Amino acid sequence: MEQAQDQAMRLGLSAWVSQAVAVNGRMREEALDLKCVGFASADFPLAEGATWDEVFDEATRIIFDA
Questions:
Q1: How far apart are CA 22 and CA 18, in angstroms?
Q2: pLDDT tens-place string over residues 4-50
Q3: Which of 25, 51, 54, 60 has its CA 20 to 30 A from that of 35?
Q4: Spatial contact of 38 and 13, defined as CB atoms under 8 Å apart
């Protein structure tokens, strides 16, 4: 987590973990930890996903391809 926060800070962003509940077709619930990168003070993620690599790849693509 500390590494993710350092990497996000270099981009001028924040990194945090958020909890979500996924419901599948059989109405089973599963708690998930979503990694998020974006603006934590506004609770606005630019990207979220299962791994930090996935999240930073998406956030970087959004920032530099825009």
A1: 13
A2: 999 999 999 999 999 988 887 777 888 889 999 999 999 899 999 99
A3: 25
A4: yes
